[in-house]
UniProtKB/TrEMBL annotation:
Similarity comment text for this entry: Belongs to the leucine-binding protein family.
Signal sequence interval, chain numbering: 1-32
Listed GO biological process terms: amino acid transport
Name under which the protein is recorded: ABC transporter substrate-binding protein
Keyword Transcription among record annotations: no
Domain Leucine-binding protein stretches: 39-393
């Protein structure tokens, strides 16, 4: 049986959700009082400090803000949500230790997982052994591939294979035919390199070379200098994208530059200044509300204190829009499947998973604000439209959209048989 999660199943209508963000605090507290029973405890394994804290800032802000929002609108199945956030410190050992704390000491019902691939790969098996559903935020394709895919893991954000498949078609057709890749020499960077090269070749372009950038190199210039200058475009899946772009431009290289999936969440694009003009990126959500008109996304921005231009009102930071969307859709997945499956306790999670494997589409709604999302049951991977962004006149805006259908790639696992 194939099901669809309708708008009604989520947080009610978009207009009600938008209105909730405008209700005074006292009234919101009264709404929260409408929940009853024991809380549903969601752990958040987040990068609050360390090298990935820039993306962690937005995941933390979104998880806290949207958990409050859910509680203000009746909770999940009428029960309040309790969010417990831990800091991975952007470190594998610390991240796994903090996951065990959530599982064994906090007794969480569900976990929203790490964005760092190495932490996620070490964590999903721990969660699986504990029979706790793990909503990974990692974007390495390998996280849900053979050898790493596990029944108690779902991913409601995109990954390197999906973004490369969709983006390469658009960029080869309209930006450049010949590409080189500068990549961080870690699992995520290697995955991005491999899938980008496959995508470019499939789109009729040429992937002519690649250069590995050691993550601990004090000076990237010698590696950037190895870039093939005959290439028309440079694909950059690197952790320190800001430094890499500055080095490329300061070295006199003028090729088109595309940042790998969700990299604009690693830094504030405005820090690039004039060298950022023309830079492309691949995201699951635009920054500017006008680039994807959506009452639902506008309501989320308002709830999180973000203006229509994608700037945090309190702190002035450019939003990590893909991080916000990934958290929203992960919470939306949990809300929908808890309510539809009749989940009551962790003993019901196996049945929730089997139910979720029958739900192949999540309709646009309050926690799926940018359109329908497809869930592939075999590897528990979601597919959604991909936004190709470009800095033009100092503003990061929409260049094109790769439809979700163009991002779908073959899987080598089938979790429905386990």
């Amino acid at each position: 049986m194939t099901n669809r999660i309708s708008r009604r199943t989520l947080l009610g209508t978009a207009s009600a959700a938008a209105a909730a963000t405008l209700i005074p605090a006292t009234a919101r507290n009264a709404l929260a009082a409408g929940t009853s029973g024991n809380p549903i405890i969601i752990g958040h394994q987040c990068e609050l400090t360390g090298w990935d804290s820039a993306t962690g800032f937005w995941r933390d802000k979104a998880a806290k803000g949207l958990s409050d929002w859910i509680n203000q609108n009746g909770g999940i199945a009428g029960r309040p949500v309790k969010l417990i956030t831990v800091d991975t410190k952007s470190d594998v050992d610390a991240g796994v230790d903090q996951l065990r704390h959530l599982l064994l000491e906090e007794n969480v019902d569900f976990v929203i997982g790490s964005e760092i691939s190495s932490i996620a790969l070490a964590s999903n098996k721990v969660a699986n052994e504990n029979k706790t559903l793990y909503m990974t935020m990692s974007t390495s394709e390998g996280t849900t591939a053979k050898g790493n895919a596990v029944p108690y893991q779902f991913r409601m954000t995109t990954n390197s294979a999906a973004t490369a498949a969709g983006a390469a078609q658009k960029f080869v057709a309209s930006v450049a035919k010949r590409w080189t890749t500068l990549y961080s020499d870690i699992k995520w960077g290697q995955s991005e390199r491999d899938w980008w090269q496959k995508g470019v070749s499939a789109a009729g372009g040429e992937a002519i070379s690649s250069v590995a950038l050691p993550v601990d190199a004090p000076d990237l210039l010698p590696f950037v200098a190895q870039s093939d200058q005959s290439a028309e475009g440079i694909y950059i899946p690197v952790l320190n994208a800001l430094q890499a772009i500055q080095l490329i431009r300061n070295s006199g290289l003028d090729q088109k530059i595309v940042l790998a999936g969700l990299s604009f969440s690693l830094f504030d694009y405005r820090e690039l200044g004039s060298v950022g003009e023309g830079i492309f990126g691949v995201e699951t959500a635009p920054l500017l509300l006008k680039d994807a008109p959506s009452i639902e996304m506008a309501a989320i921005y308002k709830a999180l204190g973000i203006d229509n231009n994608g700037i945090e009102i309190a702190g002035g930071k450019a939003v990590g829009s893909s991080m916000v969307l990934g958290i929203a859709q992960s919470l939306g997945f949990l809300k929908a499947n808890v309510e539809q499956s009749g989940w009551k306790t962790k003993g019901d999670t196996a049945a929730l998973i089997k139910h979720a494997e029958t739900v192949t589409n999540y309709s646009k709604g309050a926690l799926f604000p940018l359109g329908d999302v497809t869930m592939r049951p075999q590897d528990h991977q979601a597919f959604m439209d991909i936004y190709l962004l470009q800095i033009r006149n100092g503003v990061l805006s929409k260049f094109a959209v790769a439809a979700k259908e163009s991002t779908i790639y073959a899987t080598d696992v089938d979790l429905t048989k386990e």
